[in-house]
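ARCHIVE CARD
Drawer: 12
Card no.: 0347
Subject: one protein chain, sequence and derived structure
Cross-reference: see card 0346
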Amino acid sequence: MYKVRVERKAQKKLAKIPEPYYSNIKTAILDLGNDPRPKGCKKLKGRDG
């Protein structure tokens, strides 16, 4: 299990997103702690890691 840390600036931006989008995004971000590479994710191009 991983720990997901959301920066304060990102939290403020997320808080401005209306429901139900906010809840869906929040759930998806927090789920990354359990599965950091969910099905369907793609590796970013142009950088390692």
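Annotation on reverse: Residues 1-36 form one domain. The helical segments are 8-15, 21-31.
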